[in-house]
Amino acid sequence: MQEHLDALEERMQQLQQAMRSAQLARDSEQVRQLRAELRRTQRAWDALFEQAEDAEETPADDGARRTPAQNKPAEQPPVVLPAREQVHQVLTLLAVPAAPKLISTVHEAFFAGALAPSRLTSLRRDEERSYRSAPGARPYYLCPALTSDLLSPARGLLTVSTWPLEQRIVGPLSARVHFLTGALNIADAAGRFSGGTLPLPARHLLLHYARNIPGAQPSAPHLTGTDLPVDLTVLRRAAQDELALHTDSDTTSRTQAAARARRQLDAAGLLFGGSFESARRLRSVP
Questions:
Q1: Which end of the chain, C or N, has fewer beta carbons within 10 A?
Q2: pLDDT (tens digit per residue) in 218-269
Q3: pTM for the whole structure
Q4: Rounded Cα gap, residues 111 and 201, in angstroms
Q5: Other C-beta atoms within 10 Å of 234: how many?
Q6: What confidence tens digit (pLDDT) does each residue in 78-119 have?
Q7: Chain mean position to CA 278
Q8: How many CB atoms lie within 10 A of CB 47?
Q9: Would strands 169-170 and 142-147 be described as parallel, antiparallel, or unpaired?
Q10: DSSP assignment letter at 119
Q11: Which has the closest alpha carbon to 184: 111, 235, 242?
């Protein structure tokens, strides 16, 4: 139980740091989202702490009549956030649309508890049903990315409804831009680990990004596999250099698609996309 308390405390520190950064950047919407997540994490910590206190309190008279095995407090299951909140944590860290496998991998690297990709299979459909039955009842919804051409749901990519529409659209260059942006945000998250010692899942994740970005790994020909060093400064610089080559074109494509979406889609469509049939008809509308 102590390790779960430690993980939640570390997450609260990360959120506080992220809030300060967002405040300095004058991103009030991001501050609002991070504050809400901080409150949820604090509530989870409070609940787990109360469980730990309850487990330690055993009445003296009961203890006198019980065997040592009976006196041992029952082990309480760890507090695990609902899957949608776990996904929201990961997407907030990445700040780009992501597939279930990546969401699960990032969650394992930086958050407490397990999040299997299979738990995300029906999540998007559940979110859409919830929205259509009571629009706006939740502070956020997990929704699909929208394709820039048809404004329809992008297969297997999740976003957060509170993100700007341009951030939730994927164009021809977006996959690479999102990969590089994710690398930068993951490197930032790794840099916040206390003591500078990365857990193995986080190290594996960083190595995956470094191997797929030219110039992101220091030269170490005598090392292979997980022995390769991870230099966060080198990784950031390489990701930023390549990102500069693609950002303008990708931003233009997504901005144009977002303007078209606002003209053609209703409120639900802006979150969950139009149907493929209606998207093909609307595509010809200027």
A1: C
A2: 765 444 555 566 899 999 999 999 999 999 999 999 999 999 999 999 999 9
A3: 0.70
A4: 11
A5: 17
A6: 556 789 999 999 999 999 999 999 999 999 999 877 888 888
A7: 31
A8: 12
A9: parallel
A10: G
A11: 235
